Amino acid sequence: METRLAIVILNFNGENHLNTFLPSVCAFSQNNPVFVADNGSTDNSIAFLSEHFPKVNVLPQKRNFGFAGGYNVALEQLKGQFDYYLLLNSDVEVTENWIEPLKSFMDLNQNTAACQPKIKSWIQKDSFEHAGASGGFMDLHYFPFCRGRIFDSVEKDEQKYDFNTPVTWTSGAAMLVRSDLFHQVKGFDSDFFAHMEEIDLCLRLGNLGFDFYCIPESTVYHLGGGTLDYDSPKKVYLNFRNSLFLLMKNHAGLLFPSLFIRMCLDGIAGVKFLLSGKFQLTWMVFLAHMNVYAQFGRFYKKRRQINTKARKFYRYNGRIIWDYYFLKNTVYSQLNKRKFN
After folding, report:
1. Residue 247 to residue 311: CA distance in whole angstroms
2. pLDDT at site 228
3. With a cut of 50, which residues of the chain have pLDDT below it?
4. Cα 224 from Cα 91, distance rounded (Å)
5. 3-class secondary structure for 106-154?
6. CA-CA distance, 216 to 98, in Å (whole number)?
7. Where are the alpha helices (DSSP H) in the chain?
8. Using one digit for the tens of pLDDT, what is the confidence trace for 29-69?
9. What CA–CA distances, in Å, run from 261 to 67, 139, 256, 258, 318?
């Protein structure tokens, strides 16, 4: 029986992105239905879709629920209709053969919960893109990095990562996920609002024993920063706050020592911002920590709802800050592969 797949794009005031990137999605959708979940846009997005892309299905929402909540609301409307959801950012250009390698791999590997294509930069097409690159990983302190991108060091794509590999997380910029598993764990955690909610989803499914892969035979090009610029204070706030949310929910063993170490490392980053004259970003780190204190009880309750003894997601059992800043391992290929398990 043919598996059913829906391409779902979340949009918020993204008429320009839809105009630029949606034509490639429609051209290379391989007859899979395309849905645009509109997250309460106040621009001309819905009218634009109606006029220029009448075959695209629109799922309008009353307000902006964020990336996490917006997808949850939209996919609840599609529940039971599709085997796979192909989640795609509105600022992604796809290529002709982008769906089949992902879908074929998932069809043949039933224990894989989600996979992603190789994600390259739309601006510098010979390089990886920050959000996902060629598959995402997590270190002992819950710092995410990618095959092809560690912190702000983004590699050129020299095809040395052109093989399927297990990863800790797949990027929400372009992710093929099994619909039944998505709904089984109640989708994204809407408390994240935006950023790292896909990592949290993957950690929760990974703790249930499921795998995640990057399939570089499929390639897409991501603009990045389509909703929030990479230097946006709000993005910095969400990244620091949500990293701590990840740790609080998903860390196995004693929580407080790991949380304390991570918050100290965040403090060092805040001082670095301060010394660089980026005072507002230092303030964002502080506000992120204050929100973690305010939300601690809420997230500790979520933590208790997960079986801590069963936590076993695939990760990098090293310290990426030490590797990057002290050992000068600035690219993925330099890391000790024995620490991945």
Report:
1. 12
2. 56
3. none
4. 7
5. HHHCCCEEEEEEEEEECCCCCEECCCCCCCEEECCCCCEEECCEECCEE
6. 9
7. 15-27, 45-52, 66-77, 100-108, 179-184, 197-206, 233-250, 255-275, 279-304, 320-321
8. 999 999 999 999 999 999 999 999 999 999 999 899 999 99
9. 29, 13, 9, 5, 14
CA distance 237 to 259: 17
Q: Angle, to 10 degrees, between the axis of helix 15-27 and the axis of helix 45-52?
A: 30
**Token representation of residue 320:** 């990426």
Q: Distance between CA 214 and CA 329 in Å, rounded?
A: 22
Encoded tokens for 138: 């997590």
What is the distance, to the nearest Å, from the Cα of residue 10 to the centroid of all Cα atoms in its chain? Answer: 13
Among candidates 201, 222, 220, which has minimal Cα distance to 212?
Answer: 201
Any residues with CB less than 8 A from the CB of 13 and at least 6 apart, and which?
41, 42, 43, 45
**Structural tokens at position 76:** 């609840």
Count of residues in the chain: 341
End-to-end Cα distance, the chain:
35
pTM of the model: 0.94
Which residues, other chains included, contact 302 with Cβ-Cβ below 8 Å and sequence gap of 6+? 189, 248, 249
Domains, the chain, ordered by start? 5-222 (3.90.550.10)
Strands 136-138 and 174-178: unpaired
